[in-house]
Amino acid sequence: MTSDSTVPGDSVDPFRNERTVRDEAPQFVLPLVVRIERDAPPARTDALETAARAVLTILSDERAVGDGEWAQVVRDWQDARIRKVVRRARGAEWRRAEALPGITVTGKSAEVRVFPPVPLDGWPKDLARLQVSGTDLDDPEPPADADPTAPVLWLNPDLDMSAGKTMAQTGHGAQLAWWELSDEERTAWRQAGFPLSVRTADPAWWAELTSSGLPLVKDAGFTEIAPGSATVVTEHPALRRRG
């Protein structure tokens, strides 16, 4: 499932629907694969949180910054629309995905592997064959209240999205917050293990969040929901203090 945005500080609306000169450049996508074994699927909220941490993990990895081996492709990806696609795998499919360069991030019940960006039309064969649609998960029990001292990715209560689609959105929300943090704030978050929660906002709280100035994800409308739909607001304590 996909959506997109552009780099921080860009004068172009990062959630534009119209084409710009950047859309004429080569386009890349960040692949994420969630492990969903038939007899032991992960809890939905844990998968959403693990996907968000996976995005932060690759953004902060030494291979993705400076002169690292993934740095150029990560820059090329972030210099356009930050597309993400979530696919699912199990058994031998998952083992083949794990053999490709990437990072596996583990939650309480979820495993998500994130890979360096690839061209839109240049997916590795073992990832291209994995299914995108039908990534539906449930929470066996309602998630506990979010930790108020840690970042919270708030979901739009009025949208009904598949787990795969929502994983892409929470990845965007985490990335937008990462862009707005200082180097010191990024380091502190990384050293703490990227604590965060994903929760659905109360409708009244959602209205306040979307006008708060906190990082807001609006979907490009490629799949499932209408273009421009607000999907996630990221409430990071450091960003809230600035407001």
TrEMBL record:
This is peptidyl-tRNA hydrolase. It is an enzyme of class 3 (hydrolase). Keywords: Hydrolase. It catalyses: an N-acyl-L-alpha-aminoacyl-tRNA + H2O = an N-acyl-L-amino acid + a tRNA + H(+). Its EC number is 3.1.1.29. GO terms for molecular function: peptidyl-tRNA hydrolase activity. Residues 1-20 are annotated as: Disordered. Pfam families: PTH2.
